[in-house]
Design a protein that fits this description.
The complex is a heterodimer. Chain A is mainly α. Chain A has helices at residues 9-43, 49-59, 64-75, 90-114, 118-126, 131-141, 143-158, 162-168, 183-193, 196-223. In chain A, 71% of the residues lie in helices and 0% in strands. Chain B has one domain: Rossmann fold, CATH 3.40.50. Chain B contains eleven helices and ten strands. In chain B, strands 6-7-8-3-9-10 form a six-stranded mixed beta sheet, sandwiched between helices. A four-stranded antiparallel beta sheet of chain B has the order 2-1-4-5, covered by helices on one side. In chain B, a hairpin with a 2-residue loop joins strand 4 and strand 5. Chains A and B meet through helix 5 and helix 6 of A and strand 6, helix 4 and helix 7 of B.
């Protein structure tokens, strides 16, 4: 028979909280960097633009363990950011998840930004808009795609195992509260221990979180006007 | 060559930040192109085009498709700097002005395009867009926050602009649900709402049905009656004849004739214009 292993409410709440904190922070950081970047790449013509776009697309396929390894080396005591002593902390996990989520967010939002017709940008300009107004208009027009980008980035972040295991260390305190253990890394631990039932329960919570985030995104998409296409 | 200016009257400037006041006459300014030449890559699209559109008149810029009308209108709307020549608003070369002043001048020129260009929101928000971007950021943020808690009635300015194009009954509609003709009328209302001195209409009735075409032509006349300088690019000679006071004919990127519409249509100086007017010149 399957056992419930270490599954208790404190443990459950704390690993869920760490998962949410790390993933939400990573996606927020990715959005802060990625949305302006996608606007910049989407708006401007510059030498090497196609190379940058290809690099961003390639980033979507970054193996997470390789990212984890690079972040480990960067944050280790002898690494360039070793002085900050971030290794095996939630912040190190945020950094690695940001690196993984960023290309997904930029790639999908860039596609959304580039799909806004030039005619609409021209209309905003002709109506007296400044370049900032035109950029805001593009974000507004691309909002469904940008929400999709955020959801995809969130999905990438919250389902991440390899890199967070390497840079976070999967640490749980003796009182069963998590420091760097997430739902995904907890599932690997429970599976390794043979606590399949616990693993399935944690997996269900993870799925419910992803479902909840997607439902919020869908609610946003469906509430705003302009969903009826560009004409009839 | 330079288009003739009947009546000649110059006009004063306005600050361009005010919104429309229903039917009110105010001092307007003229828009002029002086020797505009422009091209893309190695190809010249416009060659030494000069024309003026005066307050309270409709100038039709006619010519076959691909002759440079849209490029000319984009230069007049200050989308880009011409390779040569000047765009003048109220006597100032707009490209000699500092950026902040050029923005103020640009906001005295409204434009509607040939293609569908409504934003993915309501008709009311489309029409009020030009008014919103003219407001200070603090007011815009406050409006956005207030908008989260409820919707205000459309302003008189928006109502007036929509009534001018006969679309006020659709003020709450999602712009994506409008037909092509309705969308074009809303786009013109959006250009009219900030009460511009100059209204540029680039083939606004292409492929529209007679009812929507008539509504748009009526809006052009209403704008003219308010003293707005209206420039209409069209390849529809009958429309040019119906609505315009003066006509400039562009062929091959050059303005080859201009003058009062009746004169251009009935006794053109240039033989190519005669052939074009008679439908015998095919490009």
């Amino acid at each position: 028979m399957f056992g419930l292993g270490d599954l208790n409410l404190t443990y459950l709440v704390s690993i869920t909280a760490v998962s949410l904190y790390v993933s939400t922070a990573a996606v927020a950081l990715s959005a802060a960097i990625g949305l302006p970047l996608s606007l910049l790449v989407g708006f401007r013509d510059f030498t090497g633009k196609s190379a940058v776009t290809s690099l961003i697309s390639t980033g979507m396929g970054f193996p997470s363990v390789v990212v984890g390894l690079v972040v480990l080396l960067t944050l280790s005591r002898s690494g360039p950011l070793g002085a900050f002593e971030l290794l095996f902390t939630p912040e190190a996990m945020i950094l690695s998840q940001t690196i993984l989520a960023l290309p997904v967010l930029v790639s999908v939002s860039l596609s959304a930004v580039q799909s806004v017709p030039q005619d609409l940008r021209d209309a905003a300009f002709a109506a007296g808009g400044t370049s900032t107004d035109v950029a805001l208009l593009v974000v507004r027009e691309a909002r469904y795609g940008i929400v999709t980008a955020l959801l995809a980035a969130y999905g990438r972040a919250i389902s991440e195992v390899g890199s967070v295991l390497i840079v976070g260390g999967n640490i749980v305190f003796s009182d069963s509260t998590s420091f760097t253990r997430t739902l995904t890394t907890a599932i690997t631990v429970e599976a390794r221990k043979g606590n399949i039932e616990t693993g399935i329960a944690l997996g269900a919570i993870l799925l419910a979180l992803v479902l909840g985030v997607n439902a919020l995104g869908a609610r946003f998409r469906d509430r705003t006007p302009g969903r009826n296409g560009r004409g009839r | 060559m330079t288009a003739g200016v009947p009546g000649g009257g110059a006009s004063g400037a306005s600050d361009g930040s005010d919104s429309a006041s229903t039917g009110a006459r105010r001092s307007r300014t003229r828009l002029a192109a002086r020797g505009l030449s422009h091209g893309f890559g190695d190809g010249a699209v416009l060659d030494d085009v000069s024309l003026t559109v005066e307050p309270g008149e409709i100038l039709a810029v006619v010519g076959p498709s691909g002759t440079g009308k849209t490029t000319l209108f984009r230069l007049l709307a200050m989308f880009e700097r011409p390779d040569e020549g000047a765009v003048e608003v109220g006597g100032d070369d707009v490209w000699d002005l500092p950026e902040a002043r050029r923005l103020a001048v640009r906001r005295r020129v409204g434009m509607a395009f040939q293609t569908r260009s409504l934003f993915s929101t309501t008709v009311e928000e489309n029409v009020s867009y030009g008014l919103r971007v003219r407001r200070p950021w603090s007011a815009r943020v406050r409006d956005a926050v207030e908008g989260l808690f409820g919707r205000e009635e459309p302003s008189e300015t928006v109502e007036d602009a929509l009534r001018t194009v006969g679309m006020f009954d659709k003020v709450d509609r999602d712009a994506g649900s409008l037909s092509a003709g309705e969308a074009q009328r809303v786009a013109i209302a959006r250009a009219l709402a900030p009460d511009p001195d100059v209204l540029l209409l680039d083939e606004p009735t292409s492929n529209l049905d007679p009812r929507n075409t008539a509504a748009i032509e009526s809006a052009m006349r209403a704008a003219r009656d308010r003293g707005i300088a209206v420039a209409l690019a069209t390849h529809d000679m009958q429309q040019a004849r119906r609505v315009s006071d003066r006509t400039a004919v562009i062929l091959g990127g050059t303005c080859i004739e201009s003058g009062p519409t009746d004169a251009v249509f009935e006794s053109p100086d240039d033989d190519r214009v005669r052939q074009f007017v008679e439908g015998k010149l095919v490009y």
